[in-house]
Amino acid sequence: MKPTLRFGGRWCYLYRAIDRNGDLVDTMLSKHRDMAAAQAFFRSAQSTTGQVPDQVTTDGNGSYPRAIRSTLGRRIVHRSSA
Questions:
Q1: H helix or E strand, kind and range, residue 65
Q2: Which pLDDT band holds residue 1 (cuts at 50, 70, 90)?
Q3: What is the predicted pLDDT for the residue at 3?
Q4: pLDDT (mean) for 45-54
Q5: Own/partner pairs, 73-76, CB within 8 angstroms, 24+ separation
Q6: Residue-number span of the structural domain to which 33 is assigned
Q7: Tens-place pLDDT, residues 3-39
């Protein structure tokens, strides 16, 4: 399931980061669902927390593995819920 919503009359993708306690860390709306958007979101979430996560769970979009490696590093465990 793609997390899309209508905002200001336009469809956009919702990116959100939730910590291990279930608390919302960061959100981002994007017109695109691609590697550049994923990288921007991972940078934003990392900047908000000041930490690099141990693992990231995504919905399985193909751009996420490369975006995670290039933005957060190769040691991050990536899980997919898809």
A1: helix 64-72
A2: very low
A3: 75
A4: 93
A5: 76/52
A6: 4-80
A7: 789 988 999 999 999 999 999 999 999 999 999 999 9
Its pTM surpasses 0.70: yes
User: What's the token pair of residue 69?
Assistant: 């490696």
DSSP class of 29: E
Look over the chain and give the mean of its residue pLDDT values, rounded to a whole number.
92
Number of domains, the chain = 1
Q: Assign residue 60 the CATH number of its domain.
A: 3.30.420.10
* Residue showing tokens 């290039």: 70
Measure CA of the first residue to CA of the last residue in the chain; give whole Å. 8
The neighbouring-strand residues paired with 6 are 11
Strands 24-30 and 55-58: unpaired
The answer to whether the CB of 35 falls within 8 A of the CB of 66 is yes
- Nearest Cα to 81, choosing from 54, 55, 57? 57
Sequence-distant (≥ 6) Cβ neighbours of residue 82 within 8 angstroms: 59, 60
